[in-house]
Amino acid sequence: MKQTWNYSFAFEPPSPVVDVDLYLPWEESSQILTRSLQVDSGADMTGVPMEVLSTLGARPVNVLSVFDFNQRLSDIPIFEISITIAGRNFKVVRVVGVRSRLGFLGRDVLREFLVELEGRSGETSFSDDYLAP
Amino acid sequence: MRLSDAKIVERLAERNPAKQIVITPMVNALEQIGSASVDVHLGSQFMVVAHSDRLDFDPLMSPKEYNEWLRHLRLVNRYSVLDRFILHPFQFALGRTLEFIKLPRDIVGRIDGRSSWARQGLVVHSTAGDIHPGTSGFVVFELMNYGPVPIVLYPGLAIAQLRFETVEDVREDYSERPVSKYMGFRPNLWSSYPDDSILRAMRNLKGPWEESSEARGVQEVSEQRLFGPVPNQDPLSGSQLGMSVPSASQERDLLGEDFDQAVHYYQSHHTELVAQFEGKYVAIIKEEVVDSDADWRRLSKRTHEKYGNKPMFMPFVSAEPEKPKYLGGPRRSLQ
Question: Is B203 left (phi over 0), alpha (psi -120 to 50) or beta?
Answer without folding.
Answer: alpha
